[in-house]
């Protein structure tokens, strides 16, 4: 058995609470990082900081985030005294898209192209330095795209730094609900994005995010002009 024995770890970690999953991930892998963007990810940063003194954390700056999100990023950096790596899209690729299609082409032809340039490609470059990464995905975020999310899985979308071993993705919060996330945030005084006070439950880029009503799924406010099954940017896809 090795740390890449996926079937073993899926059986061992299935249904476990976030902390033991996170502890296993950080103990098994050195080249591993937490992907940070929202409230769930800060919960993971908070937990990880109690397990390991130095943790790797990165976030994607698409260039189109809300001002509150940029303030949130700095709040997290300072609160945990971490070296937060900020990933930026390729300038020439962004310029070519905007020159050809303008600033809001995603309202007409879908968000995949813009997300591909601003989010997917910067992430792809980052993951090529890692053996594993940790996300804040939960099954209840979107029943159309995340209902079968496993606590640990092979990443079939991206490649890691090894040509001989797969890239492993850990989802320690897979079995948690939104209520559990916010209970933790309140109990441990974890920083959060001020947009949550304004009705935003899932926060992405400013042009593609809006508040949701209490009865709506939390990702309803993302790319609201598209079908629910398409509410992923390309970073997370169901394993084949």
Structure notes:
It is a single chain. By secondary structure, this protein is of the alpha/beta class. It is 36% helix and 9% strand. The protein has one domain: Rossmann fold (3-Layer(aba) Sandwich). It has helices spanning 6-13, 18-28, 39-49, 67-80, 91-101, 106-109, 112-127, 178-188; strands spanning 32-35, 56-60, 84-87, 132-134, 152-154, 168-170. Helix 4 (67-80) links the parallel strand 2 (56-60) and strand 3 (84-87). It is globular. It starts with 5 loop residues before the first helix and ends in a 52-residue tail after the last helix.
Mean pLDDT figure: 90
Identify the CATH homologous superfamily. Answer: HUPs
- Beta-strand share of residues: 5-15%
CATH class: Alpha Beta
How many individual β-strands?
A: 6
Morphology call: globular
Largest sheet: 6 strands, mixed
Unreliable parts: none
Number of domain modules: 1
Number of helices: 8
Q: In percent, how helical is the residue content?
A: 25-40%
- Spatial strand arrangement across the major sheet: 3-2-1-4-6-5
The chain-level structural class is: alpha/beta
**Measured distance between first and last alpha carbons:** 23 Å
